[in-house]
């Protein structure tokens, strides 16, 4: 049997099994569901505060805890998903998400709601596993398009879940909104059970437990510090001490990964110029992307009494995200076709420039809702294209067996970038809020937008630098998977 025949064998076997025709829609659906369910906390923060009689800061944890658990679980799930028990890992994780969704619906105390939201956030780690399944069980060209789409829907899922959750909260209350999460996660579990194939044989699923704990602790501290704006202003010494602890834990994790034979993330592979460049671009770009998303949604809900804003309700403000989701999806579908003509790093640079254009629009034209919708649409198109291009750049130099692990690390990088983007937006707006005023001056939004322009300029420059270093032979369109495997043998 030739190498090409051996490579095709798992694909043909997977496509011949019952339910294989559902594989692509199932992969996309699961990625969309876990992203949308994790984002349910965003429009429901006020409802949680009033229903459970807690502060808005406490209610904010219904969103933060989902992002934290997702970032911590992702690398572990990525390693388990690279082994022989990937199907079981997917089903068990979805079962945890379903159980968490049930906790959010049941009439239990606030602490149990946080437990449920943390369980829902664990599902965010499935995005990388969906990519691994696609790369193992689909033909090369189809898997590239599917992976790009999975990456896109994992980002635009927030735009899908936000308006639906807000509408259900207005019509039926908080439990009805969380009930949506229970229904769709149950459907996702059944879909995965019917369609997910087993992983190819001959892979290891050993987890470096010490490294996993160090990474989990480091990420928890980083994301906590990114969102803890009051901690930096009121308890600076504590914040600095926690930052030092985070750095030490992440350094210990890096050394542990280099020494173990079963790393959560192949740190040596991460140092490859293509992988490092893509992750740097995702980190800085993620800061800018989430910053603009935060600015636009907050600006739209600011009441007219502040001297600007549109005073939109939660549901109507959620509809502002529709252009983001629609154009993001369109960009995700177009990007794989464009990749046959334009190299991945150049697509990253162009996408970052588009997002930068969205910042410029928001900074210069936001006097009416149409301008705000336009900026959101430009952001969605840029984010969709960027998200679709990143996996191709990373997987072009990554063996199939390491797909889930490599993309899970990229997700962690993205999560940290998003968290910092949200924090940066909050800090700039807080600095522009006069003492005794509830809302910041409008000029603060312009300042924050200019920060975003700078972030996207850095991202564009990093992507262009990567394009100059990249050789044609590393493109997955022209380099078969067998060649990539040989380079890593």
TrEMBL record:
Regions annotated as coiled coil: none
Q: Which GO terms describe its biological process?
A: response to antibiotic
Cell compartments where the protein resides? Cell membrane
The transmembrane segments are: 22-46, 58-78, 90-112, 118-134, 146-169, 175-193, 205-226, 232-255, 276-296, 308-332, 344-363, 375-397, 418-439, 445-467
This protein's membrane topology, according to the annotation, is: Multi-pass membrane protein
Its source organism is Kitasatospora indigofera
Ordered alphabetically, the record's keywords are: Antibiotic resistance, Membrane, Transmembrane, Transmembrane helix, Transport
What cellular component terms from Gene Ontology apply here?
plasma membrane
Question: Which is one GO molecular function term here?
Answer: transmembrane transporter activity
Q: Which domain of life is it from?
A: Bacteria
Taking every annotated instance into account, which residue ranges of this chain make up the domain Major facilitator superfamily (MFS) profile? 22-472
InterPro entries associated with the record: MFS, MFS_dom, MFS_trans_sf
Q: Does the keyword Secreted apply?
A: no
State if Nucleus is listed as a keyword. no
Official protein name in the record: MFS transporter
Note down the stretches annotated as region Disordered: 469-489
Q: Name one Pfam family in it.
A: MFS_1
